[in-house]
């Protein structure tokens, strides 16, 4: 199972929530399609898409960011959602609800989809 190293985790912390969502959302769509659960993941992907739709920023280009993007692309679908949920937009009640909604949708998806051995 892929994991981010210390340097990569520090870079994720430097990204804004919307920059992270912009980076993670296309990977989530791809992994859901490849895993055959894109339709069942609709609610979860919709939550991410709504958040990205309000974003006007794009990740800053650069070698380190490309390397981070490559490392993030190796993460599982579940790990990608967890990464976004932990990087809430603000520390207020709405962001807590957003993170809880993501995690609840992920649990619902897990209950609907069996992982292929």
Brief account:
It contains 6 helices and no strands.
Strand fraction equals under 5%
Q: How many domains, in number, for the residues? A: 1
Order of helices and strands: HHHHHH
| Gyration radius from CA atoms, angstroms | 14 Å
> What spatial form do the alpha-carbon principal axes imply?
globular
Structural class: mainly alpha
Which whole number gives the mean pLDDT?
83
**SS field, number of helical segments:** 6
**Quantity of strands, as a count:** 0
Write a structural description:
It is a single chain. The protein is mostly helical and 117 residues long. The protein has one domain (6-112). 69% of the residues lie in helices and 0% in strands. It is built from six helices and no strands. It has helices at 6-14, 17-35, 42-53, 63-73, 77-86, 93-112. Helix 2 runs antiparallel to helix 3 (42-53) and helix 5 packs antiparallel against helix 6 (93-112). The two termini are 14 Å apart. The model has no long low-confidence stretch (mean pLDDT 83).
Secondary structure layout plus pairing:
Layout (H helix, E strand, L loop, with lengths): L5 H9 L2 H19 L6 H12 L9 H11 L3 H10 L6 H20 L5
Helix pairs in contact: 2-3, 2-5, 3-6, 5-6
